[in-house]
Amino acid sequence: MTNNLYILSLKMQRHHIYFEHDRKGDYIILGASTNAYLKLLGSFFYIGLAIVVFFVALHLLPEIPSILAMIIPGVFLIYGLFQYRQYTKLRQNKDTKIISKDNIQIGATVYPKSEIEKLDYLVNIDDEGHATAILKILTSKAFVPLLTIIDKNPNLVRKDIQFIQQVLTDFMDEVSTEHPTSKSILKTV
After folding, report:
1. What is the pTM of this model?
2. Domain limits of the chain?
3. 164 class by beta-carbon count within 10 Å (0-12 exposed, 13-18 middle, 19+ buried)
4. Quick one: pLDDT at residue 25?
5. Which of 27, 32, 45, 142 is the most exposed, having the fewest neighbouring CB atoms within 10 Å of its CB?
6. Which residue in 110, 86, 89 sits closest to 27, CA to CA?
């Protein structure tokens, strides 16, 4: 199990997610995305750059064709909006999650192991080819997002989220990925 926790820590580090576990193996702590605010800063930078380039091209450089004056800032604007969309997805990781053998605590909410039916995941691939994976807890009451990861490589995201699901399931022992009394509403891709 310690090898899997080490590999899990490397995967969390690759996806810029805070990770900690104790040496005894009593708990795992998953925290906020460490690069979420960089995405927000990047989005403000590129959107601001788009506005500045647009006004400079229109007012100070009249010899530039107007279509070119719109395309270049448009690229910066689209990239800035893309960065902001990634930031909003990564903000789902803002609460600290403490996973122990008896329960999962997300912020102030505690989900006892007896209420957890299944750990499941969903992988979405957007038009640009970026993959977003969400690991969710299926309780008797609702689906609760546990972890969100985003990457440019869909295969990497899929393999990583499967590994994370398996390690957390093994860590909690009794929470199975195929609970006999539950039906999966999430589509596992």
Report:
1. 0.69
2. 2-34+95-172, 37-89
3. buried
4. 67
5. 142
6. 110
